[in-house]
Amino acid sequence: MLYRETGQFKTTYAADQAIFPIFQDRVFLFAIIAFAYIVIPLIASEYWLQAVLIPLLIFAIAAVGLNILTGYAGQLSLGTGAFMAVGAYSAYKLATGFPELNIIVVFILSGVSAALIGIIFGLPSLRIKGFYLAVATLAAQFFLIWMFNRVPWWYNYNSSGTIIAPPREVAGVMLTGPTATAETRYLLVLTFCILGGLLAKNLVRGRVGRHWMAIRDMDIAAEIIGIRLLPNKLLAFAISSFYCGVAGALLLFSYLGSAETEAFDIFVSFEVLFMIIIGGLGSILGAYLGAAFIWLLPIFLTNAPQLVGLSMPVDFQKHLEVMIFGSLIVVFLIFEPAGLARLWQIGKEKLRRWPFPY
Amino acid sequence: MSAAEEATAQAPILRLDGISLAFGGVTVLDDVSFDIREGEIRAIIGPNGAGKSSMLNVINGFYHPDDGTITYKGETRTRMRPDQAARQGIARTFQNIALFRGMSTLDNIMTGRNTMMRRNFLWQALYVGPARREELEHRAHVERVIEFLEIEAIRRVPVGRLPYGLQKRVELGRALAAEPDLLLLDEPMAGMNSEEKEDMCRFVLDVNDEFGTTIALIEHDMGVVMDISDRVVVLDYGRLIADGSPDEVRGNEEVIAAYLGVVRD
Ligand SMILES: Nc1ncnc2c1ncn2[C@@H]1O[C@H](COP(=O)(O)OP(=O)(O)OP(=O)(O)O)[C@@H](O)[C@H]1O
Ligand SMILES: [Mg+2]
């Protein structure tokens, strides 16, 4: 089937405003979702699910969150790790404090709690921008992690300071804890990831998204035409932190099982930032591509040399990985701030014209 | 024109009384008073740095005057926030284009309707029922603006990639989308070639004619000003030096002196 927009005349604005207006895109998306739900659980090994796909999907959720704040609303944040920590610790406290509470509800409430904290740390954004705001969010990162270390209430006063995800089941299926299978955890994370992505996509293409982009592109003009800066910026912080919070809770409950604050340190903030830079600032698809890229590249580097009969020492591979990330980030920032998502777009445009070169 | 029509046509939608504004000791506006009548095209002219743009900024609440009052739609006040002005039907364009460069033409013009959209983010995230209906309603209106300005072909293009003349047109579109009662245009034809200027003149006149929008317009091109405006105010060094019909203003000696750069004592 040729990839064509021609012939698909949209006769109503409703059709033109649909979330994926091009028929082939819709088919493609459904195919991917079906593949992720049906085929992957059948073919993927325990290792692939546990070590690659589950964390990939969780970080994709966080990347969607950060992209809402940084890519759409233009507010640079280095506090992603801390907002994920808020989600994880809230989920831990809620799940252990209210064992009867449905674990899905716990995850949502953890997102809400991260959103509230996000609003508080978003308040300075009315006065400061860019680099200075990044420093303020950095302060949030260090303060929150320090607090989770120092206030034993957060880890139920246990001596190790570790938080452990308790086993919880919903409708007879064990979703968390040591006995939850990798398949179940994968499917749970996948569901959050897809629903989160669809909701985010709806937000950014509507009024709220336009307000965010307007503020990003020219805040003074936005204000003059009647867009109120403070509520819109705080909404971006809240929703972004909600995604990060849910991602943090899932990281603890569906991936790590047990964690200390190191799991949410400043490097996590940078990692998610790299994902959206490589994937594409201001693109929901970009958040997914970036997360996939960062989790799949190491696997590729581990396996590729063997495929062509070479062997690569592990530490050399680590260095190579860092070098590739570093140079890619520079390249994308300079040449293609819209990242992989933009390359995807260009590819689609080529495909649309194919086989005619113009 | 009937007597009743005459009366509404004469009623001022905006009156400025004794507006003064200074920045760090430099006087930008000095005791300026004039009014803008409902339905007219009111030109504001004057040499560079006369305070014309500052005057528009005072009108839409971006600058707060040190002295004087603004009476808009019968309500008198000394200060107002820009978003309040927008909500009460004042829209504008800027001397240096102030579009959202990363967004498409369509999205830019949609932002013009922001003050009329109500549905909260939860509805929008779901994009069902009221939120969807609202979005489509406003989209339909924006499409009429796009058609009016003849920019259908660039609907999906990020405005940062458009040539200057088209950007000016999109900016007018964003202001029109707000369905303003009072439209402030800061040099809408600056930097355009004569053909683009003609188009822009036509749009301004059509807006005024078809929608009855009151327009305050800053313009340097005297030909344009004389052609399309009903009344003209002239500013020079922050002072109002003339106010009247285009013909009256053209013959005013102080205006001629200001434009010729005659040294004042
Ligand atoms: N925010 C500001 N801070 C300081 N000075 C300002 C500010 N805005 C305007 N001015 C000064 O006020 C004076 C009038 O500026 P304004 O932009 O209103 O002039 P103008 O009549 O629009 O000129 P032009 O024809 O060049 O656009 C200038 O001397 C300018 O430097
Ligand atoms: Mg000016």
Description:
The complex is a heterodimer of chains A (358) and B (265). With 358 residues, chain A is mostly helical. Chain A contains 14 helices and 4 strands. Chain A has one domain (20-353): ABC transporter involved in vitamin B12 uptake, BtuC, CATH 1.10.3470. In chain A, strand 2 and strand 3 form a beta hairpin. A two-stranded antiparallel sheet of chain A has the order 1-4. In chain A, strands 2-3 form a two-stranded antiparallel sheet. Chain B is 41% helix and 24% strand. In chain B, the strands form 2 sheets. Chain B has a 6-stranded mixed beta sheet with strand order 6-7-8-3-9-10, sandwiched between helices. Chain B has a 4-stranded antiparallel beta sheet with strand order 2-1-4-5. In chain B, helix 4 runs parallel beside helix 7 (164-177) and helix 6 packs across helix 7. Chain B folds into 2 domains: 1-89 and 181-265, Rossmann fold (3-Layer(aba) Sandwich); 103-179, no CATH class. Chain B has 265 residues and is of the alpha/beta class. At the A-B interface, helix 7, helix 8 and helix 9 of A face helix 3, helix 4, helix 5 and helix 6 of B. Magnesium ion binds at residues 52-53, 95, 186 of chain B.
